[in-house]
Amino acid sequence: MRPCVARRWARTSDRGAFIHVGAIIGTCMVGNVFLVIIPNQRKIVAAMLAGQPVDPRLGAMGKQRSVHNTHMTLPVIFIMISNHYPAVSGHPKAWLLLALISAGAIAIRYFFIQRHFGKIQHEFLFYGAMLIFGATAIASMKPKDKVEISGEVSFATAQGIIQKHCAACHAATPTHASFAAPPLGAAFDTPEQIRTYAPKINERAVLSTSMPLGNETGMTDEERAQLGAWIKQGANIP
Ligand code: HEC
Fold first, then answer.
1. Counting Cβ atoms within 10 Å, is residue 164 exposed (0-12), middle (13-18) or buried (19+)?
2. Distance from the CA of 30 to the center of ligand 1, in angstroms?
3. Which residue's alpha carbon is at the smallest distance from atom 31 of ligand 1?
4. Residues 125-167: tens digit of each pLDDT
């Protein structure tokens, strides 16, 4: 049976989902310019050149779309650079974080638009800051463990998980076809390297799901929890 659209969306990687949202908003913005703002402008100019009365609705429509675009700018810019914030895009509540950050960015943009007209409304800066602060607070909250791990997790178990899900890319000589060198120089070949990277591994594969990249290897929640438990228990190596 073919999976429904929602299911296919659900399987899009975290980053892919962000890019999709950005592409949808960006398409609306381009549509506003090419389907309304520019054609209306042309109609207004043509009417003026012909010495006919100009329909004021044309200008009003263009203005409305241009206001929409202005408010969408900062959220789109954030999505464009969101690749650098895997803690946001890889968070289990990524949709909520994106919604809060976008609302905050719109409030901040609104402050600057009003300031442009000489109206200083600091409360909008405050709302924007609070929304973005709220998103940061949620992003830094430890998600509730979906899987409870009881007992000690050995280094051998942690290394086995890393071998299975990370080593293809994160090795001195990666076996993954897309990588000639370990990404960002992060190789997990030796126990010492794994221990050194433990806090970052925790960030990327336990607290968020931004690694393995696109979850290519199908890492399970159970494995993430085990890796997390090993790190929590002191990231001990033999
Ligand atoms: C398909 C290749 C691939 C796999 C598999 C993969 N990674 Fe990555 N990893 C990358 C790429 C590319 C980057 C750099 C881009 C980025 O930071 O998102 C990266 C970056 C990282 C970083 C950041 C390093 C730094 O110095 O900031 C960590 C930590 C990490 N990965 C951990 C893991 C863990 C843990 C696993 C396994 C559970 C894993 N990765 C699996 C490709 C991969």
1. middle
2. 34
3. 211
4. 999 999 999 999 988 876 666 688 888 999 999 999 999 999 9
Q: Is the pTM of this model over 0.85?
A: no
Neighbours of 158 (CB within 10 A): 26
Residue 197 backbone dihedrals phi, psi, to 5 degrees = -85, -5
State mean pLDDT over 43-56: 95
Reading the block at residue 29, the tokens are 């913005």
Place of tokens 């012909």: 50
- Ligand 1 pocket list (CB less than 6 A): 86, 165-166, 168-170, 176, 183-184, 186, 197, 200-201, 204-205, 211-213, 216-217, 219
> Distance, CA 203 to ligand 1 centroid (Å)?
11
Nearest CA to ligand 1 atom 15: 183
Q: What share of the chain is helix, strand, coil (3-state, %, to 5)?
A: 70, 0, 30
Q: 7 pLDDT exceeds 50? A: no
SS3 of 217, please? coil
Considering only residues 176 and 9, tell me which one the structure prediction assigns the higher pLDDT: 176
Q: What is the mean pLDDT of residues 67-86?
A: 92
Task: Report the interhelical angle of 94-116 vs 14-31 (nearest 10°).
Answer: 30
